[in-house]
Amino acid sequence: MDAKKSNVRLVVAGLLLGLFMAALDQTIVSTAMTRIIEKLGGLDKFVWVYSAYMIAMVVSTPIFGKLSDMYGRKRFFLTGTALFMAGSILCGTAQNMDQLIVYRAIQGIGGGALMPIVFTIIFDLFPQEKRGKMMGLFGAVFGLSSVFGPILGATITDNISWRWIFYINVPIGILSFLFIVRGYHESASRRKQNIDWLGAILLAASILFFMFALELGGTDGWAWGSWKIVSFFVAAGVLLAGFLLAEARAKDPVVALGLFKKRLFTSSMMISFLYGGVMIAAATYIPLFIQGVFHKTATQTSTVLIPMMLANVVSAQIGGRVATKFPFRNSMVASALVLLAGCALLGFAMDLSSSRLAIGLFMIVVGLGMGVSFSLLNISTLSSVPPQYKGSASSLITFFRTIGSAIGVTVFGVLQKNDFQSAVKALPGASPEMAERIKSGQALLDPAVQAKMGIPADVLNTLLAKLGDSIIYVFQWSVLLPAVALVFALLMGKARLSAAQGAPQGSQAGGRGSHGGEPSGQAEPTPGS
């Protein structure tokens, strides 16, 4: 069936719901985790509820992106939606932590299909003069999900049951599935390709070893310098080298390495990677700072990120709308400068005496700098590649952002823990055993842990102040990420999304199908871009 007959409103509604569902599940679990541990046990394994989702999504994202290029977007969007709903139902029925971890991995595989394919369908569906606006709308979903996720998670957990934070995905997913089935009709034309099984297996194995090393490193029995962690990193490196060799020889590679010769494409990937690190630092450590310094509970801090995320939403809209007015470089340079200012404010202007209002203003600056990337980097990436690689390219943006977040949370975690333990060991009467017992200090935020440890009130306040200082130390280091991103933004060249005077033939009411020829949204050709 011809893509011209797609029902654009139904498709957009279905895509928005699918993206919101996948993005929401990255944040909604956090405020329910205490209750989940109470019911299921498994305190020593709870971190894998997050890690299993992230690892599965990272591994599956580039593979689904390539498959969508080969066989069409629709079938893999629907596959991802079905997997996500199945994983959600299973999560809601979990009877122990091991089951929940496995079921979260199923969700992650579904999320690996949904997130990149959404943006590729939008690029296929709309003529170039509308793409910026639509990308801004969809980029804003990430900010909205970050705002509503913790609030919704706390509300559902407190008033219904933690199981419903997963069941709520089912009606959202069903609507998304039905809207896409009924409304989206892509072109039946295909370019015959071979499946690069060797490349897919090597890539998946390399990512698995790398992610396991990041997740296990520094935990009990898995010291960073231990032979087990080192061997994981070595295995990841060897498998990555094998993957690169396989891709250089493959007829239809999972990841076309030639795309990285394009300055615009490579710069977009690197900025996505670096912004992912900043995003995870802000989302993780600002709530912890508020909890420790202002003595709030996790539920009370579930709304603390609202200023940053609302600014994120506004900025994502702006990023999409300016894509046709200015070169990508100009917009991303402005974004990186604003983000650099926001990180500097958190690292050097914020202290233990800062008011909530001041911290909120600092978060707004970070959000304004961050949000542009959610829309503009998708546009710059998809504008720089041929149509047969758009699914792969879109998946790589998600891939690099997620890898950036994974590495960022690990590196920043090490920095924060080391700084906190050094401060604790310097306290009068403190012992190395005490520093090791409280580790990064985050356990001190749990009233149950405070009572169990029996720490006097004055000592506890001192420790929480040191925790706040160690978080500020993290933000001081975070300044490096937007600074490096600024360099890559300057390398993006003069490419921009040219606004067409009218929709090109084949783009009316739904655009060309996923494989129906070159969409008119290519960046203006510039040397090296």
Give the SSE layout.
Layout: H1 8-24, H2 33-40, H3 47-71, H4 73-93, H5 97-125, H6 128-159, H7 164-167, H8 169-183, H9 197-216, H10 227-249, H11 263-294, H12 306-321, H13 328-349, H14 356-382, H15 390-425, H16 432-438, H17 447-453, H18 457-478, H19 480-490
Helix pairs in contact: 1-5, 1-6, 1-8, 3-4, 3-5, 3-9, 3-15, 4-5, 4-8, 5-15, 6-12, 6-14, 9-10, 11-14, 11-15, 11-18, 11-19, 12-14, 13-14, 13-18, 13-19, 14-15, 15-16, 15-18
Task: Provide a compact summary of the structure.
The chain has 529 residues and is mainly alpha-helical. It has helices spanning 8-24, 33-40, 47-71, 73-93, 97-125, 128-159, 164-167, 169-183, 197-216, 227-249, 263-294, 306-321, 328-349, 356-382, 390-425, 432-438, 447-453, 457-478, 480-490. The chain is globular, with a radius of gyration of 23 Å.
Please supply descriptive tags for the structure shown above.
mainly alpha; Growth Hormone, Chain: A; 3 domains; 71% helix
Describe this structure as you would to a colleague:
With 529 residues, the chain is mainly alpha-helical. The protein folds into 3 domains: 1-190, MFS general substrate transporter like domains (Growth Hormone, Chain: A), CATH 1.20.1250.20; 196-251; 262-499, MFS general substrate transporter like domains (Growth Hormone, Chain: A, Up-down Bundle). It is 71% helix and 0% strand. The protein has 19 helices and no strands. The radius of gyration is 23 Å and the shape is globular.
